[in-house]
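Re: that backbone. Tokens:
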């Protein structure tokens, strides 16, 4: 493995860790917001991302819990996705990249990405439904505005995972022939 590849993978690892930490902070902040919105709604306007859904909570608790559930699950899934990326980047063997571990991790990344995309799309449609019922959802769109990008990215990653599985099969055949 060349020195340049080593530096690139160290850089990727650092970037993945930074994104992971940022997503964990976001998920933690959203969890704190959720707890504060239930017990001390007057402080919500001063908390993380000023996500104040107290009006929605007062009007319709089911709408509040469903929207906040979407927000929390998507934020947690994004953090878990980057944790899987960190594991992949830290344990991949560039001298022999076609192995079952890499294939499983890439497949797992595609499944998490698809889950994020589909949940974001469902949340986006649910929010639009709430908008038609007179709820204010302006501050919610930031959490799922990239749903289509995640779905497309999941498709691309799945294709890569399939290529890796085929590469493993070919590599195993070659090892058996020799």
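Recovered sequence:
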């Amino acid at each position: 493995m060349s020195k340049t590849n080593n530096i690139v993978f160290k850089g990727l690892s650092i970037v993945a860790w930074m994104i992971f930490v940022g997503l964990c902070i976001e998920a933690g902040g959203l969890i704190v917001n959720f707890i504060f919105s239930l017990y001390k709604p007057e402080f919500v306007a001063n908390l993380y991302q000023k996500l104040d859904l107290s009006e929605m909570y007062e009007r319709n608790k089911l709408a509040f819990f469903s929207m906040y559930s979407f927000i929390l699950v998507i934020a947690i899934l994004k953090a878990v996705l980057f944790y899987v990326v960190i594991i992949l980047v830290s344990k991949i063997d560039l001298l022999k990249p076609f192995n079952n571990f890499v294939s499983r991790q890439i497949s797992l990344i595609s499944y998490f990405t698809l889950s994020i995309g589909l949940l974001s799309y469902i949340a986006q449609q649910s929010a639009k439904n709430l908008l038609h019922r007179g709820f204010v959802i302006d501050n919610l769109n930031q959490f799922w505005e990239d749903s289509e990008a995640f779905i497309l990215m999941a498709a691309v990653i799945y294709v890569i995972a399939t290529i890796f599985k085929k590469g493993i099969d070919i590599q195993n055949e070659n090892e058996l022939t020799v």
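The chain is about 80% helix and 0% strand. The two ends are 24 Å apart (CA to CA).
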